[in-house]
Design a protein that fits this description.
By secondary structure, the protein is mainly α. The chain has one helix and no strands. The mean pLDDT is 92.
Length: 40
């Protein structure tokens, strides 16, 4: 494997991690909003 391929794989993994984290945060905030509405 060349350096270019290694770099692209690392960038892809990082992008996937960021996407997963963003999705989880959005899901958590969505659940929080739903729970807050129920309590009030």
């Amino acid at each position: 494997m060349s350096d270019y391929e290694m770099l692209m794989i690392m960038l892809t993994v990082l992008a996937l991690l960021f996407t997963a984290c963003g999705f989880l945060l959005a899901l958590l905030s969505f659940l929080d909003k739903r729970n807050n509405k129920r309590k009030k």
